[in-house]
UniProtKB/TrEMBL annotation:
This is Sulfurtransferase TusA family protein. Pfam families: TusA. Residues 8-32 form the UPF0033 domain. InterPro entries: TusA-like, TusA-like_sf. Belongs to the sulfur carrier protein TusA family.
Amino acid sequence: MPDQEILVDARGHRCPVPTLRLRRSLEAAPAGARVRLLADDPLARIDVPHFAAGAGFELLAQEEVEGALSFLLRKP
């Protein structure tokens, strides 16, 4: 379902775990699905946009929510 949003909560984990969990969820998601990653590792601010650009996923939003970084990506 294209309007589906999948939540990946990787708070409490250090890189590369948040990015690996994000990758796994995006690969398993149907085309058009949106995946939201929550991470509290500051390196995610660098790693996630780099991963998205290199893997062909669209980074829709990046913000800080309740002390965690929130990334919203879409699978083409």
